[in-house]
């Protein structure tokens, strides 16, 4: 059951589900893009894995009016499929070695070889579920069943930017250096997030992302190329 939750004077949360699922994510995306069409750029809408949060200024829009707009967006999402521009992205990755910090533990958990891990990881097109918990972190789902592994028991204090991780049923990209507890199987040379650009994070919720295995030589040739400038 969907819950509408006022969270203080400037925050409005819509809780869609208790557990992550593809159906729940697609529902969140439909409401998200409906709200983008209904609200001005002065509002920030954050897509989560089970909820969506709107940060608003009550001097511009009162809670009662925002609640009405949210109800309209929820009704729209039930009546028809909302269309939005869904882009596809390819992210090149060097798997294993010095860039795949946890690939040996994934071998141990899954019983797969490194080549099989790479084969299964690049074999799917992933839906971008959400962007967070740090700037540009990409949540992608769902993983091939054979690659499902738990998070690290002790998260790292520092994960290098570009690291590709897997945890539970998700895979993700650490776009900036940050702490993290996902198992790292590779790294992309591309710059995924750039504060200095007008559009610092071109990948959006609802986009499709796939991975491509590359060599070390290709990694250094592509180092720091921005994601929107890569056409691999």
TrEMBL record:
It is an enzyme of class 3 (hydrolase). Its EC number is 3.5.2.9. Gene3D superfamilies: 3.30.1360.40, Cyclophilin-like (2.40.100.10). GO terms for molecular function: 5-oxoprolinase (ATP-hydrolyzing) activity; ATP binding. It holds the Pfam family CT_C_D. SMART domains: AHS1. SUPFAM superfamilies: Cyclophilin-like, PH0987 N-terminal domain-like. The keyword Nucleotide-binding applies. It comes from the Archaea. This is 5-oxoprolinase subunit PxpB. It comes from Staphylothermus marinus.
């Amino acid at each position: 059951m969907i819950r509408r939750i006022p969270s203080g004077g400037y925050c409005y949360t819509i809780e869609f589900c208790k557990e992550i699922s593809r159906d729940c994510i697609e529902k969140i995306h439909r409401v998200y893009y409906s709200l983008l069409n209904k609200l001005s750029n002065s509002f920030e809408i954050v897509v989560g894995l089970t909820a969506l949060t709107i940060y608003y200024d009550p001097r511009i829009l009162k809670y009662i009016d925002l609640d009405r707009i949210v109800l309209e967006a929820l009704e729209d999402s039930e009546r028809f499929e909302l269309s939005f521009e869904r882009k596809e992205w390819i992210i090149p990755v060097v798997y294993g070695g010095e860039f795949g910090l946890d690939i040996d533990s994934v071998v141990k958990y899954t019983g797969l070889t490194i080549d099989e891990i790479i084969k299964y990881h690049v074999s799917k097109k992933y839906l971008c579920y959400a962007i967070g918990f740090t700037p540009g972190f990409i949540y992608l789902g769902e993983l091939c069943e054979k690659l499902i592994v738990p998070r690290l028991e002790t998260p790292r204090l520092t994960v290098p930017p570009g690291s590709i991780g897997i945890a539970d049923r998700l895979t993700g990209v650490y776009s900036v250096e940050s702490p993290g507890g996902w198992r790292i199987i590779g790294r992309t040379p591309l710059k995924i997030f750039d504060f200095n650009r007008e559009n610092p994070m071109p990948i959006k919720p609802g986009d499709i992302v796939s991975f491509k295995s590359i060599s070390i030589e290709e990694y250094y040739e592509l180092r720091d190329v921005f994601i929107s400038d890569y056409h691999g």
